[in-house]
Each structure stands twice: as C-alpha cells, then as structure tokens.
Amino acid sequence: MALLTTIFLLLICLLISNVISHYIPIIPTALTQIAFGVMIALVFKDFSTEIKTEWFLLLFVAPLLYNDGRYFPREELWKMRAPIFGNAIILVLLTTIGGGYFIHWMIPTIPLAAAFALAAILSPTDPVAVNGIAKRIQIPEKVLNLVRGESLINDASGLVAFNYAVAAVVTGYFSLKEAIVDFAYMFIVGALCGLILALLVTWIRYMLRKQGIHDVTFHSLLQLITPFVIFMITEEFLHASGVIAVVVAGIIHSLIRERAETINAEEYILTENIWSVVLFILNGVVFLLLGLNIPSSMRDAVSNPNIGNWLAIGYVIVIGFIILGIRFVWSYVFSYYDYRFGKTEEPLKPSFITTLLISLTGVRGAVTMAGVLSIPLFIMSGDAFPERSLILFLAAGVILLTLIVATVFLPILSKEESMPGEKWNTIDLASAKRKILLSAIKKLNSEVNEENSAAAFELIEEYRGMLRQIQHRLDSTEQEFNQEKMREIRLAALKVERKYIYDVMEKKGMDEAAFESFEKSLDYREEALSNNARSQASYLFGRILRGLKRFRGHKQKDKKGRLAHYRRGQIIQIKALQAAVHYLENNEDIFKEKEMVQAVILDYKRVLNRLKRPYSDFNEKVEEKKEELRIKVMDMERTEIHAMYKQGEISREQAKELRKFINYIESVTLFEHEE
C-alpha cells in the first residue's frame, strides 16, 4: 500500500508541476518538479525512495536512452559528427579525469575512484531540460543540434565510465589496462547486441504479422517492452553495456521504420502516444526523485562536523563551474581547430558567445540523477560507500546549478547581436506546414498498394499542390497581398454559385435534402476561404468533388437510382460552376488583377473537366480509399506536430494553429463519411 501511495503522490505532483509550468513558462518544468520533490521530503519525513541499482537503470535509463536513439536525426547531425563525437567521448573522458582529480584534491575524504565516478556521471548532458528552455527562447540551431547529438552518445559513455568507477570503489581494485579492455568490450559487444536484438525483434514482428497477428495493441506493447528486454539480456547474459545496446537498438528501430514499405498508421500513432506518456512520467519522476533526495543528502552531508552548510554549497558551486569550465575550454579549442583545419560542413565559427552558449546548454539532468541514485549503500568489504550522501548532494546541487544558470543566462545570451545570420531553433508557420506536408507525402508513398494506388496518387498530387503553394509563400514577399486578392475573387465567384443554387431551389429543381447538401458544401468552402491558412484551391475544389458523394445517397438501394441521383446533383453543380466562370470572364475589370482572375477561372475549368467525367463504381471506390488514406495521413501530421514541438522547432502557439488546420480538415472528412 505504501508503494502505491508513493506512486500516486508522485504522479499527482507531476501533473501539478506541468500545470504550473504552463502558467509560469519562465521557470523550467524540471525546476518545478525538483521543488515539489523537496516539499514532499520535508512534509513526509519517512518518505522512502530507495531503488536498487539495476532496477533504477532498467526502469529509467533504458527507456529514456532507447527513445533518444529512436529520434536520432542522422542527416542533420551527420554534418556535425566531429564536434558531436568529440563532446560525447573525448569531453566525457576529460571531464571524468580532470573533474575527478579536482574533486579528490578539493575534498580528500572522497576517494579518487569515487571522485571519478561523480565527475563521470556529471559529464552527460540532458536534452530534455534544454528542449524545455528552447521552447521559450531562441537558441541557435547548430548549438541545439550539437547538444542533442552529443547527449545521445555521452549518456552511454558517461554511464559506462561511471559504472566502472563505482565498481572500482566497491571492489577496491583498479587497473587501467583492464579498464580500457573492459570499456572497449562493453561498448563493442553492447552495440552488436543492440543491433542483433533489434533486428531479431523486427523479424519476430514481421513473422507474427505474416501469421495474421495484426493486433495494434499487441505490437505496440511489444515495441514498448523492447528496450527493457534488450537491456536485461545485454547486462545479465553478456555483461556488456545495456546502455549502448538500447541506444543502438533505438537507432536501428528508426532506420527500419523509415524504410518499411508498409507502416500501420494506427499502430504507429498508438505506439507514439504510449511512448509520450511513458517518457513524460519517467522524466518527471526522475526530477521529483532528485528533489526528494536533496533534503536527506543535505542532512547527511552537513551532519559531518567538517562540512557546514555554506561549505557544502560552496563545493557545489565550485564543482559546477569547473565542469562547465572544462566544457567551455574544450568547446573553444575544438571549434577553433575544426573551423581552421577540420572537414565539418559549415563548422561553428569560434567565438566567446557561441562557446558560452554551448557550455551553458550542457545542462545536467535525468541521466545524471538516475546514475547517482544507483550508487550502492555498501562496498564489498561491508563498509558504507565512502561519502555516498555527500556525492549525492553534490550531484543534485550541480544539476540544480546548471539548470538555474541556463535559465538565467541563456535568454540573455540568445539576444546578443554578435551572432548575425545565425539560424535559430524555431521555424516559421509556413516552414512548419511544409515539413508536415513532406511527411504526409512520404507517408502516402509508404501506403501505396495495388488496391489503393489510384486514390493514393491522386491524394499525393493534392498534397504536392499544397506544397507548391507553401513554397511559393516562402519565396514571395507579396504573397500576403496576393492571397487577399485571390480570396476576394473566390468569394465573389462563390456568391454566384450560391445564387444559382438558390434559384434552382426556388424553381423546385431539386429536393430539400439535395439543397441542404449544396448549402453545407458552400458553407464549408466559404469558411475555408475566410481563413488565410486554408485557402488552397486544391482543397476548396476537392471539397466540391467529395461533396457530390452525398448524391450517391443511402436511400437509393439500387444502382440505377443511385446513379440517377448522382447525375442530377452533378448537373446542378456543373451549371453552378459554369455560372461562376461566366461571371468572372465578364467582370475581369472589376478585380483589376486579371492574372489572378484567370488563375481562378482555370481552377474552375479543371474541376468542371473532372465533374464531366462519367460516374462509375470505380470512381466511388477511389474516393472512399482517398478518405481512408486522408485520415491516416492526418494522424501522421499530428504526430509530426508533436515531434516538432517536443524538439523546440515550433512554439506552443504554432502547434495550436497547425492542429486547428488539421482538425478542421478532419471534421469535414468525417462529416462526409457520416453522410
């Protein structure tokens, strides 16, 4: 019961902390969660959070790093491979050795091996905390990519170095030669194990599907437990690095997912949603646990007569700035070398501001806390782990320090005018739409098969048309004016169509149901035109073609009746469009922009040509397949929006605007299916 109460209380605090961060965005969510953890520890004196080392690594580290691997942005980060690997491996070793010797020199009661362990676990950066800050301020894209790229690898290298240092403290034995050999073994075997097991899981999923097991919940659960299984097999049976294994497995998963010919959209969306919840909980709980352990570690640390409150805080500040200082020196030296002699494409130009940004974005977070909390209570001889509570306090303090320093100084540095022409991490709304449309086209290409090829290619062409218009918007400075004029012309033509429909209704040329269908179609088109974001001709006229499906009706059970009903609606629609064309052709001078009028007329003539094609059951099936594909693509677009927001590429407001657009299109599509 105590365990359930603990879990329930942590989840409530997790939810409340995110609500607070929504209303006070200037404070990172991680800091709010740490504060909640401290409050819980102070209110509930007997609150216990002890977790065994292997359980902590399995429950928190494995899924977090596997997810990092799943979202490894290879194309963007490959260009920066030299600084990324330099920061992820060499900088980790420099931080471990340099920081370890300094910590042992400053605090002699911490053994050298334990000092190495503390420095090693302080070396990995936390992209989650940086992304939270990136959503509120402008961080140069290259700097952000560097931090995201190195964090994927330095989590693994830092944890491997940390585990080896802790083992040296526990056993009391250390050999540099054996350490290098073991380090290489754990890396290489861990990577191979991750590769093989990831391919094995993929093969198992493929064979299960081949046997007819297509349940999306089953396959989503299989994906969810994959990192836990891989981590356990690698650690327990091969005694290699489970951390490296899950990172490699995550990368393999993303590669296979991108190259898969057939992707089940429902399974993809379900899996991503589950992962979002799991990662939300894991990242939040780690920071809550950090806060929970601060009071106890501080109490134990300051209970030492040789260490007072101010001295302990002084240790935290000095160690924090030493760690950041090592990062600063390394970043400047490496960026200077890479800029002068390296082969990196468009390397970062060495400057004080850029180097300081790189240093301060090296925030420590979840992985650091996950590792330090896994330090055992006792060593092999039965004695207590030397200065465990002090090490825990120092790690927690450095995490807090780096978070606070980044929160305070990054917004100031990001406003510096000494970085002209730098590309920032956020993108404008048009670029975000372009990225979404490209992902939609990619998704449609992966869904093409013999049964839906005609529908898929038609829908792909629609998306390509929207993409061309988005690209034109990005390239043209006069696009806003042009859109306003086009909207004016289309609305004028729409009024002519509406007048024709009303005239036919007054003359009893159609029944009430048909009139209501036309009315709804006209209303949706007019609403779309009233919004600048949804004024694409391809959508507006596609809405006409899809709207005519209502005339195939459910009331006409026989094929002839259904066909006759459709043809009556088709004739009325054609004449309404012809009336609009006639109006535009005779009133070009009113609008002044004759080229735009001709463009609208051309759009009308294209849809007229399509409407005049003979109706067939084949066309009806094509339209049905298009709507099925459209819904799948909308799910993919929502996932893309979530991913862009999570990575800090778009703001909260931009994400809302993009979701509104997709929700509107979906509401129209679902309405047509209901009809």
Write the layout of secondary structure elements.
Layout: H1 2-23, H2 29-43, H3 53-70, H4 74-78, H5 81-106, H6 112-121, H7 127-134, H8 141-171, H9 176-210, H10 216-237, H11 242-259, H12 265-302, H13 309-340, H14 352-360, H15 366-372, H16 388-414, H17 429-447, H18 453-475, H19 479-506, H20 512-529, H21 537-547, H22 559-585, H23 588-591, H24 594-611, H25 617-646, H26 652-674
How many structural domains?
A: 2
Fraction in helix? over 70%
Structural class: mainly alpha
The CATH class of the largest domain, by name, is: Mainly Alpha
Distance linking N and C termini: 52 Å
Global morphology: elongated
Radius of gyration: 30 Å
CATH architecture of the largest domain: Up-down Bundle
In DSSP terms, counting alpha (H) and pi (I) runs of 4 or more, how many helices?
26
The largest sheet is: none
Quote the CATH topology of the largest domain.
Na+/H+ antiporter like fold
What's the overall average pLDDT, rounded? 76
Number of strands: 0
SSE string: HHHHHHHHHHHHHHHHHHHHHHHHHH
What can be said about this structure in brief?
By secondary structure, the chain is mostly helical.
Q: Can you offer a commentary on this structure?
A:
The protein has about 675 residues and is mainly alpha-helical. It folds into two domains: about 50-415, Na+/H+ antiporter like fold; about 430-675, no CATH class. The protein contains 26 helices and no strands. α1 (about 1-25) crosses α12 (about 265-300) and α7 (about 125-135) runs antiparallel to α8 (about 140-170). The longest helix has about 40 residues, at about 265-300. The two termini are about 50 Å apart.
